[in-house]
């Protein structure tokens, strides 16, 4: 098993970033087509038809958000940046060797769209089930 760590600097304050991570409406703006939530369980639906039921493990407002995601542990940590925005650190632990390359690259796509939505109110995804990561589209 391997781990992935990415960092992202955002202009937006931690409260804004946390709300995107912690709410179904926020997650649907940058990450998933649908993200219905029941208690601490999130039902993710993606453009390619893939679904996953994850579980929120930690939700500390404006500071951290952890979840069980595709049989791994994902931790988002938020810190106010010196410039007044947010420094986000993503750690994805227990990623299988066979999935590592795709997951490593996939988080870049998710994080850059998070920045586009949080800082510029712009969703970079195409939302087309015929033009997904599976067909080589980076803006799935």
List keywords for this structure.
alpha+beta, Alpha-D-Glucose-1,6-Bisphosphate, Chain A, domain 4, 3 helices, 7 strands
What does this structure look like?
This protein is α+β, with helices and mostly antiparallel strands. It has 3 helices and 7 strands. The protein has helices spanning 14-22, 24-30, 100-120, and strands spanning 2-10, 34-38, 41-45, 51-60, 64-69, 72-80, 86-95. Strands 1-7-6-5-4-3-2 form a 7-stranded antiparallel sheet. β3 and β4 form a beta hairpin. The protein is globular, with a radius of gyration of 14 Å. The two termini are 27 Å apart. The model has no long low-confidence stretch (mean pLDDT 95).
Which helices and strands appear, and what pairs or packs with what?
Layout: E1 2-10, H1 14-22, H2 24-30, E2 34-38, E3 41-45, E4 51-60, E5 64-69, E6 72-80, E7 86-95, H3 100-120
Antiparallel strand pairs: 1-7, 2-3, 3-4, 4-5, 5-6, 6-7
Helix pairs in contact: 1-2
Summarize the structure.
By secondary structure, the protein is an alpha+beta fold.
Along the chain, the helix and strand elements come as EHHEEEEEEH
Structural class: alpha+beta
> What helical percentage do the residues reach?
25-40%
CA-based gyration radius:
14 Å
Please report the number of helical segments: 3
CATH superfamily: START domain
Regions with little confidence, pLDDT below 50 for 5+ residues: none
Strand order of the largest sheet: 1-7-6-5-4-3-2
Largest sheet: 7 strands, antiparallel
Gross geometry = globular
Strand segment tally: 7
């Amino acid at each position: 098993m391997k781990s992935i760590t990415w960092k992202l600097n955002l202009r937006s304050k931690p409260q804004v970033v946390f709300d995107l991570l912690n709410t179904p409406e926020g997650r649907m703006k940058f990450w998933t087509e649908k993200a219905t939530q029941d208690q601490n369980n999130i039902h993710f639906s993606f453009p390619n038809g893939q679904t996953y039921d994850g579980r929120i493990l930690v939700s500390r407002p404006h500071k951290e958000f952890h979840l069980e995601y595709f049989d791994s542990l994902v931790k988002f940590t938020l810190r106010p940046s010196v410039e007044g925005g947010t420094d986000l650190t993503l750690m994805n632990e227990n990623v299988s060797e066979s999935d590592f390359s795709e997951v490593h690259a996939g988080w870049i796509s998710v994080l850059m769209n998070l920045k586009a939505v949080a800082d510029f109110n712009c969703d970079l995804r195409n939302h087309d089930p015929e033009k997904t990561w599976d067909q080589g589209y980076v803006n799935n």
